[in-house]
Amino acid sequence: MGKTVRLILGDQLNAFHSWYQNISKDTLYVMMEVRQETDYAHHHVQKVLAFFTAMRSFAYRLKNGGHEIIYLQLDDPRNIQSIPNNLDWILKDAAASRFEYQLPDEFRLDAQLSTYAEGLSVTSKAVDTEHFLTERNELKQFFTGKKTYLMESFYRDMRKRYDILMDGQNPSTGKWNYDAENRSKLPDTSLLISHPNQSRSVESIQKMLSKAGVVTIGKEAETGLNWPCTREEGLELLAFFCEELLPYFGKYQDAMHTDDPFLFHSKLSFALNVKLLHPLEVVHAVEEKWRNDPEKYGIAQVEGFIRQVLGWREYMRGIYWAEMPAFAHLNYFGHKTPLPEYYWSGNTRMNCMSQCINQSLEKAYAHHIQRLMVTGNFALLAGIDPDEVDAWYLGIYVDAIQWVEITNTRGMSQYADGGIVGTKPYVSSANYIDKMSNYCSGCHYNKTKKFGDKACPFNSLYWSFYARNRDKLEKNPRIGFVYKTLDRMKDREKILAQGDEYLANLEKL
Ligand code: FAD
Ligand code: SF4
Q1: Does the structure show a pLDDT above 90 at 329?
Q2: DSSP symbols for 348-396
Q3: Which site in 37, 99, 260, 499 is 20 to 30 Å from 288, CA atoms measured?
């Protein structure tokens, strides 16, 4: 009998997968760095570096554990830069009698590998990644017969199923959701805590990428790559988060500040998405902190975090598999405007946008509210083509993998799905941004003005968005009140004219 070849993709770095329980000379693991993956989007350079570093560390770990492995670097002369083409010669050289792979999280790779496996003359098998807390198609089944996918009911079911923050069938504290207590502005900078430095030199990979001519965006970190690329680093970051940041997480979850891009956020998304960490171990670590010291941690902080991982993360994955591939083409408002150039340069006089974009270019990171209520909010108000918005989000963030990027961007942020993910568009004027951040005080524009000299673009574009999309939004019961306000506005014509002027001159903002 020939060998079994097992493919491990770059986001399948789950060291506890049952595959690795037995060591066998008849099993050959394969990992590869390929142009197919570096080139399907314009990725942030730190994202490519983090993926390759994490993959190399994982391969080293498997090899050290006694497993047989072929690791193809991008510059390996044998590497023909596509997964199927490399597999062809690897299977042949190994005289393989069987091919196995873990189910990819992305539709694109799922289609590619299932087609490839079907065409093989040897037997093949796809296995679960043993990472998520729900099956791929479970969300669709959960909501069969219902009009909308309501995150809250899914989340409550997950709390019960995994017995998280529960006493029997009831929430431990008598209340399911503390979202209303998660909306404070940072009072001052004295609360800020430096995140741990996990920097490493990635010079040799950087050189390899430059030599190969891989096109990337964003800045290389001057002091090395500061993302957790091994399981140990992921655990170290989780422990730091639980000890230092969790006590403030929920309360300041929506806050934004010029002095600190991370605030009390965990920075765990990369480690989770490439599966160095398991979502349940993260949730359990957080719950345990609260159970041991409810005074220090406070239920609103802990529940706020658990809702993200146990609720939103699994829910978005479920939406992805329920709605793809059609989801990738939805454009409810028919938006067609190109993405303004400052999304790539950060060069705009809107301080909130400049802060969030520059931070993203520098760190490959922005937290949820920066993504949703600044860059996403602006793109929606300005009527940007969701294809271009998606391409930007898919490239720029270290944690961006399509299943979680597109559902958040096209769905939650751009409402291009017409209400599959969210019940109404997430849009706001300067009011919200000012309430949650210190951005407006350093801005060229005036946060209180809706029209005229230096009027904040978010103000007139907010009303213009609603006026332009009246036929699509007025009947939404969560929105109707907006139109009542719009119709009563004394300066409505001037505000809408200001919106038109900004729309015609988006690049100059
Ligand atoms: P924390 O605030 O510390 O949250 C903890 C964890 O909860 C995260 O690590 C993440 O795993 C999970 N989580 C939180 N919110 C969400 C959410 N809405 N959907 C799924 N998981 C969530 N997240 C990605 O992982 N990849 C993406 O490509 C991505 N694109 C996004 C695009 C837009 C427009 C928006 C609005 C959100 C996007 N998110 C994405 C969700 C969220 O912004 C990030 O998960 C989060 O900012 C990562 O930082 P953190 O680890 O410090 O998160
Ligand atoms: Fe952003 Fe307007 Fe505030 Fe300037 S005034 S930071 S553009 S919301």
Answers
A1: yes
A2: -S-HHHHHHHHHHHHHS---HHHIIIIIIHHHHHTTB-HHHHHHHHHHH
A3: 260
